Amino acid sequence: MLAELDTIQTEALAAISGIADEAALEEARVGFLGKKSRLTEAGAGMRDVPADLKKDVGQKLNEVRNAITSALEEKSAALTARRDAAAFASIDPTLPSRPLPKGGLHPLTLVLDEAVRILRRMGFALAEGPEIETEWHCFDALNTPADHPARNETDTFYFENGKLLRTHTSSVQIRTMEKEVPPVRIIAPGSAFRRDEIDATHLSAFNQLEGLYVDRGVTLADLKGTLEYFFREIFGSKTEVRFRPHFFPFTEPSFEVDLKLHAAGRAAKWIEIAGCGMVDPAVFTEVGGKRGDSAYDPSAITGFAFGMGIDRLAMIMYGIPDLRLLIENDVRFLQQFR
Fold first, then answer.
1. pLDDT value of position 37
2. 27, 71, 160, 271: least buried by Cβ within 10 Å?
3. Which of 76, 74, 69 is nearest to 32 (CA)?
4. CA quadruple 6, 11, 12, 17: dihedral sign
């Protein structure tokens, strides 16, 4: 038996060393290690080996199997290296590489970055707040009555614990006033959520940029000058801006802001772009009650607030006709903004 195993090993190693391709190597593996191989048959014959020789024969059987297995692995590695070398032989490493396609920022990111840069130059600091809010921060503190349509479940996403997805980033203004004393000059960019039907001009999740300035002696003229400067910086110095009286629970007086668009081949038209107003004294009173001090005494301070949709700014800036294009992740659309 021991002599037979030596013969199997010698023949196997000689055959493997002369193999020239993967197909022959696989055939050799089956022939030398498969179920019908001589080595397997020798292993099956262990039951007929005398007891005093079983240890030596078993050890030799394992040595032969390991030797053949190692030879097969070495030959496989050699064949792979030879194939790879042949594949790279025709490559000229001195040739310049093919240029990789360049990525780019999303149009919403481009617009938001530009808006933040402009407002930061005007002295506004960035502020953040949670997207899951309390009713007090999102509605009560902003002077929104309990029967206001925005508080209805058909308009707002509520959780079972009574919290909600914020419907505007105005809640960040409240959280900032809770923590800081005047003067406060902040902008709050971020996502907001409403139960709107998705169409060309509405999404259930959208992006807002809101601002707040609170100090002694802040006037409506400050608000008007801030927004006119901002929109002329972002859309051009000749941009026409108008303010129309409106109603918001948290500002008084309140205004909607329109821009006049001049599209090629079309008559100029006004389009709503933002909402704004002087902070309602009731908001300061509510915040003061929460703080427990007179930092926001409405008889001593004033302030203004404004808010706009980043999505709407992007539509105007780039002439995007359908808001849904901004969330479809179509590479053909996004490549225009690189």
1. 77
2. 160
3. 69
4. positive
Which DSSP state fits 278?
E
User: Would the CA dihedral through 293, 295, 296, 299 be positive or negative?
Assistant: positive
The whole-number pLDDT of residue 216 equals 95
Domain boundaries, the chain: 2-89, 107-337
Alpha helices (H) in the chain, listed in sequence order: 2-17, 22-33, 38-44, 54-89, 107-121, 135-138, 170-179, 220-235, 281-291, 310-318, 331-334
Residues in the chain: 338
Amino acid at 72: L
Exposure on the CB side of residue 78, measured as CA atoms within 13 A: 13
Distances 65 to 7, 12, 14, 58 between C-alpha atoms, Å: 13, 10, 15, 11
For the chain, the helix, strand and coil percentages under 3-state DSSP, each to the nearest 5 = 45, 20, 35
pLDDT of residue 264: 59
Give the position of tokens 């969330």: 327
**Using CA atoms, how far apart are residues 285 and 300, in angstroms rounded to an integer?**
12
Does CATH number 3.90.45.10 belong to domain 107-337? Answer: no
| pLDDT score recorded for residue 318 | 87
List the beta bridge partners of residue 211: 187, 306
Q: What pLDDT is recorded for position 1? A: 60
State phi, psi for 96 to the nearest 5 degrees: -65, 150
For the chain (length 338 residues), average pLDDT per consecutive 10? 73 82 84 76 68 70 82 87 83 83 86 96 95 95 90 90 94 95 96 89 91 96 96 91 95 94 74 94 95 94 96 88 88 82
User: 126 has which bridge partners?
Assistant: 187
Measure the CA–CA gap between 20 and 285, rounded to whole angstroms.
89
Q: Which two tokens stand for residue 88?
A: 């790279």
> Tell me, what's the pLDDT at 84?
83
- What is residue 54's predicted lDDT score, i.e. its pLDDT? 66
